[in-house]
Write a structure and sequence with these properties.
The protein is mainly beta and 143 residues long. It has 1 helix and 9 strands, in the order βαββββββββ.
């Protein structure tokens, strides 16, 4: 399984081009680059009966997590507030993300939306989404 870093270097000019052409031949010192931040790491799994969305939300209190299902889209919204320090500390760097984060997952139409459950333990949110009977699959006996 490939688990990339949370912060991704982004340059709109390079997005659809092989990296070596731009980096080696056409480098410009005035090129504008930015950093994209993935809201939070997550994964989607399934077994015969359920889909599972797992989201890593370390440091986010349970009360600051909002989950809703609208038009077969599961939306997870979380808010992590920055700790206010009164000391005069100077940062050399910070890799800790603060603020509001939202991710939306498109679900198949064949889920049992009335039975969705969520659990939050040790910074990991797990949303269990039951499949409807028509999506579970079954063996067919030959007569």
């Amino acid at each position: 399984m490939n688990r990339d870093n949370k912060i991704i270097k982004n340059n709109p000019l390079k997005r659809n081009w092989p990296r070596n052409i731009w980096d080696n031949l056409l480098f410009s010192p005035f090129e504008e680059e930015s950093w994209e931040i993935t809201p939070f790491r997550s994964e989607l799994q399934e077994d015969q009966n359920n889909y599972y969305v797992k989201a890593e939300l370390p440091g986010v209190p349970k009360e600051k997590i909002d989950i809703e299902l609208v038009n077969n889209q599961l939306r997870i919204h979380a808010e992590k507030e920055e700790e206010k320090e009164t000391t005069n500390k100077k940062y050399h760097f910070s890799e800790i993300s603060y603020g509001s984060f939202t991710r939306t997952y498109n679900l198949p139409r064949t889920v049992n939306s009335q039975s969705i459950k969520a659990d939050y333990k040790e910074g990991v949110l797990t949303v269990t989404i039951p499949k409807s009977e028509e999506n579970k699959g079954r063996k067919i006996r030959i007569e």
